[in-house]
Amino acid sequence: MILDLFAGPGGWSHALSVLGVRDVGLEWDEWACKTRAAAGQLTIRTDVAAYPVWPWVGRVHGLIASPPCQAWSRAGRRLGLIDQPLVHQAVADLAAGRDTRVGLLAACRDERSLLAAEPMRYLHALRAAGQPDWVVMEEVPDVLPLWRQYAAILRSWGFSVWTGVLNSADYGVPQTRQRAILLASRVRVAAPPAPTHAQHAEGETLFGPGRERWVSMAAALGWGATDRPVPTVCAGGGPGGGPEPLPSGARRALSGARDRGTWVPVDTVLEPRDSGRAARLGGRRSQTSDAPASDRTGQTGRWRWALRSNNQTNATVRGIDEPAGTLFFGHRSNECTWVADPDPAEQADGAPNPPPEPIRITAREAGILQTFPADYPWQGNKGRAFNQIGNAVPPRLAAHLLAPHLGAAVRPDDFTLAA
């Protein structure tokens, strides 16, 4: 079997299902387990650090691990970096068959830090049976020194190992999410998968196949690169709590805006005086031939929609014709919002008008930008869904990492995103 430690809502599991196999996931979070159940994935709800390893000895073909990244992530307090020597000590001790976790945990500034050492406990136990055949691990880039320590130990046990940082956008994910990766194998040379995409499209050469241009948010969400979409607005509170701009249960769809006469066609300039939130947000590409024509005139500046990765001053802001930056969730300062960004081509003649109001991204949109299907069955309220999405590995990246170990291939149409 394939054992998935810290399985989350199913990023690795969904990738495996696309490749035609299944795993068994160990996961503690209640809502991630409910999402996995709704998606039909095999799950044991448990604390990975407390679960015994003996039931798996002699049964595991592949081991996957994505330890929780909150202690290491730049989006959090990053106490894991302070705890790093303790985590390295735990890995070294577990590799030698010594369990010193209790004492080391008491000294940690963040109790989650030591979870990054847990895969070694499983690897040491499985080693007695000559398993697993392969290992794939993923974390935030700051964990790379720890992966290198794992690599040195695994090489001494006969594995071929590769470690490094990969950009998810290079594998067709509409997000420049960088991740520290460890790939190890007993039966093949470990190497990163060949990138399928690049910031600028590359033609085929004598040295290899070409690469497509990075997937944009617009393409992933089905908006079209020239559309001015209406980001969906839902009520009920966001990932950090707080009221939505509309009453509880309200939802403004394009049809409702059209009925009220506030819908703005794609080729209409966004005007700050427009009444109605949907009008201020512009319009999706019309699906009907009876869309109202604009009667607005005058010299006004255009805006293009962009995604702001969080509320902090150094937040990444990307236009919809680009991949998103890394999506962070789990705290109010990490809310992702659609914001109006001046279109340089349209603003050359004067100062832009006041921008439309920011709109919070929906869980469905965030899931798609992580390459989950549009109808993926996220469980729990919006805050819980956002937490699951932000912590998950992008399935499309996961599939590229896993395919060589399974003798499979990732096809271009395996991850059709927009509904």
Automatic annotation (TrEMBL):
<keyword id="KW-0489">Methyltransferase</keyword>
<dbReference type="GO" id="GO:0032259">
    <property type="term" value="P:methylation"/>
</dbReference>
<protein>
    <recommendedName>
        <fullName>DNA (cytosine-5-)-methyltransferase</fullName>
        <ecNumber>2.1.1.37</ecNumber>
    </recommendedName>
</protein>
<comment type="similarity">
    <text>Belongs to the class I-like SAM-binding methyltransferase superfamily. C5-methyltransferase family.</text>
</comment>
<keyword id="KW-0808">Transferase</keyword>
<keyword id="KW-0949">S-adenosyl-L-methionine</keyword>
<feature type="region of interest" description="Disordered">
    <location>
        <begin position="237"/>
        <end position="259"/>
    </location>
</feature>
<feature type="compositionally biased region" description="Polar residues">
    <location>
        <begin position="288"/>
        <end position="299"/>
    </location>
</feature>
<feature type="active site">
    <location>
        <position position="69"/>
    </location>
</feature>
<dbReference type="InterPro" id="IPR050390">
    <property type="entry name" value="C5-Methyltransferase"/>
</dbReference>
<keyword id="KW-0680">Restriction system</keyword>
<dbReference type="Pfam" id="PF00145">
    <property type="entry name" value="DNA_methylase"/>
</dbReference>
<dbReference type="InterPro" id="IPR001525">
    <property type="entry name" value="C5_MeTfrase"/>
</dbReference>
<dbReference type="InterPro" id="IPR029063">
    <property type="entry name" value="SAM-dependent_MTases_sf"/>
</dbReference>
<feature type="region of interest" description="Disordered">
    <location>
        <begin position="272"/>
        <end position="299"/>
    </location>
</feature>
<dbReference type="GO" id="GO:0003886">
    <property type="term" value="F:DNA (cytosine-5-)-methyltransferase activity"/>
</dbReference>
